[in-house]
Amino acid sequence: MSDARKITVTVHDGKVTLQGKAHTWQEKEEAHYSAWGTPGVSSVENNIVMTY
């Protein structure tokens, strides 16, 4: 189960920046693909770090 409260999303001129912590690659990828799936997004910078 993911903990979305640990991921911060900022948007500026269609660029989404993701920051925070994920426990699995799946959580990191879900956040990335969710951002890309949002209308109007032109780029995604995924700065989520893995924590174990």
What does this structure look like?
The protein has 52 residues and is α+β, with helices and mostly antiparallel strands. The chain has one domain (4-50). It has one helix and three strands; from the N terminus they run E-E-H-E. The chain has one helix at residues 25-36, and strands at residues 7-12, 15-22, 43-50. Strands 1-2-3 form a three-stranded mixed sheet, covered by helices on one side. The chain starts with 6 loop residues before the first strand and ends with a strand.
Major sheet characteristics:
3 strands, mixed
For the secondary structure, the number of strands is 3
Percentage of residues in helical conformation: 10-25%
Unreliable segments of 5+ consecutive residues? none
Rg is 11 Å
Number of helices: 1
Strand residue content: 35-45%
Q: What is the CA–CA distance across the termini?
A: 14 Å
Instruction: Sketch the topology as an H/E string, one letter per element.
Output: EEHE
The count of domains is 1
Structural class: alpha+beta
Biggest sheet, spatial arrangement of strands? 1-2-3
Identify the overall geometry: elongated
Look at the structure and give the mean pLDDT: 91
